Target: Thiopurine S-methyltransferase
Amino acid sequence: MANTRTVLDAEEYPDTEVQKNRVLTLEEWQEKWVNHKIAFHQERGHQLLKKHLDTFLKGEKELRVFFPLCGKAVEMKWFADRGHSVVGVEISELGIREFFTEQNLSYSEEQIMEIPGAKVFKSSSGNISLYCCNLFDLPRANIGKFDRIWDRGALVAINPGDRKRYADIMLSLTRTGFQYLLSVFSYDPTKHAGPPFYVPDAEIKTLFGSVCDIHCLEKVDAFEERHKSWGIDYIIEKLYLFIEK
Model:
């Protein structure tokens, strides 16, 4: 493994097209939850988010915060405990139920009339609402606009061919003055097919740059023992903050 400084200074990988035709179905994602293949879940929460939380929130109160492809992210409770309103979307009903169970939160569930077969799970406190459906169907539910979006494990999980459609939905959900925090990974995509998929800097600028000023807050060496099985020898996590132009 290269030393940390060398890794963090690594150039973007030149072949950005190698994963473009990769497709995972919703059923495959649901199977990951059933089979507990959820190494992407962080039981202690996302440490870079925790480090930059004050920058993200700016001391503002009662924000609406959106979690795309939320899984059972513990950060949802962080925001709710600070008085913010949290909305998430997740295809796995199992993941949503595990969130409420593991956080010791009582909840109700109801059908979403606008999306056949979809449900929304709401905490009894009323400040966490998690929609169980395909993210691309979510706009039909009219969930309103958001002050903050925390995109961790979402853009990097969307099939590469769907990124433009995804980004358009994300931006359509933003209020004036929004902030959008994004976590992505950089690695050699010829050695690992994803997910998480490799999202180069240039594509982030293409997807969001017309609406947002893009700031890279931090790059960290994210390599763990489990990544050896992917056939890679480095992986960098990058945290970006998007601010409305």
Remarks:
- The two ends are 39 Å apart (CA to CA).
- Residues 93-102 form the longest helix (10 residues).
- Residues 26-35+59-244 form a domain with the Rossmann fold fold (CATH 3.40.50.150).
- The chain has one domain: 26-35+59-244.
